[in-house]
Prior knowledge:
The chain is an alpha+beta fold. About 20% of the residues lie in helices and about 40% in strands. The protein has a single domain (about 5-125), classed as Alpha-Beta Complex (Nucleoside Triphosphate Pyrophosphohydrolase). It is globular.
Amino acid sequence: MSQQFAVTQKAVLVGPNDRLLLLENEDGVWELPGGRLRVGEDPVAGLKRAVQETTGLDATVAGPVLNTAWEVSDQGAFASIYRAHTPTEQATLAGDHVRAVWIDPEGAVERDLNDTQKRAIERAGLR
Length: 127
């Protein structure tokens, strides 16, 4: 039996002041910026596109820091989280996000992020 996976990509996005960008969605959940990878899309290009679409920021992707897979409602999910940089902290929100904050890495892991995203921040070498 083959199982299809939704592939999500996120960025531990570091700005010029060594702070991270966190986004709050409509449900009040904090998360790293990113989005879903499209079929046939290069992973790095897909992450850059998703960050640009959700924040208006251009990102330079340094490399993956964490890959993980899990099951949600009998379907597979896969996430790849990368370390990335942006030259500005002037985010313009789009999609289902209602707030953006730039925060130091210590403060970021104290937010209500899921454990996978907290682990990615640590693996990005920012704590």
